[in-house]
Amino acid sequence: xxxxxxxxxxxxxxxxxxxxxxxxxxxxxxxxxxxxxxxxxxxxxxxxxxxxxxxxxxxxxxxxxxxxxxxxxxxxxxxxxxxxxxxxxxxxxxxxxxxxxxxxxxxxxxxxxxxxxxxxxxxxxxxxxxxxxxxxxxxxxxxxxxxxxxxxxxxxxxxxxxxxxxxxxxxxxxxxxxxxxxxxxxxxxxxxxxxxxxxxxxxxxxxxxxxxxxxxxxxxxxxxxxxxxxxxxxxxxxxxxxxxxxxxxxxxxxxxxxxxxxxxxxxxxxxxxxxxx
Length: 277
Known about the structure:
Rossmann fold, two-stranded parallel sheet
């Protein structure tokens, strides 16, 4: 039985951990507090306490580095002054990995790394990105940091906007004015994101980078309208004037699909949510 550790049993990590257990993997995850660790234990996940401050604090966290596979779901910090802390946390993880039994690492990144520039064609994993051109320089530095070591093989999953369960895009703009509605979305459902993590491990897709984005890209106004009609929430009051809809910033998922991965939720208009308002 292959052992998989998940550093960060948050919104995505917990879902991936439960899925991997269902598929027969032995899963160990981390939580930042003993209270959350106890809550996750009740759901059947083996959990240790680990808080990176930025150096590790907790109990039994070195067990995380005894697995063959480590999934790093540590979310980047966007608040002022916290981005450097995030990079320090990743540097600590990399050092812990250097002397560990871990052979393969999945690093959860974001499509925010692609340039914030609209164009006719889509962004693919072949896009040449530099720190000066990256849409998010912290993401670029994070990927570079995790890749600069010979002690493990690395696969990067650049996830789009994670939606599903209690994350409802239309809810964020309900009743608001002058909302951007003419651009196309780059969303992925929570369950598909978790399934993609499991797929990479199951298929042994190492030393690669994949975009985690639903294949279809409806306009934002279409998604908000569908959320409003399905969930009973107010749609936006008004939208900004329409720009050139032939251009946009959408992300291709063709590379992961070419490996045989199939999305359960290929169209964000059909995403399911746990919350009914």
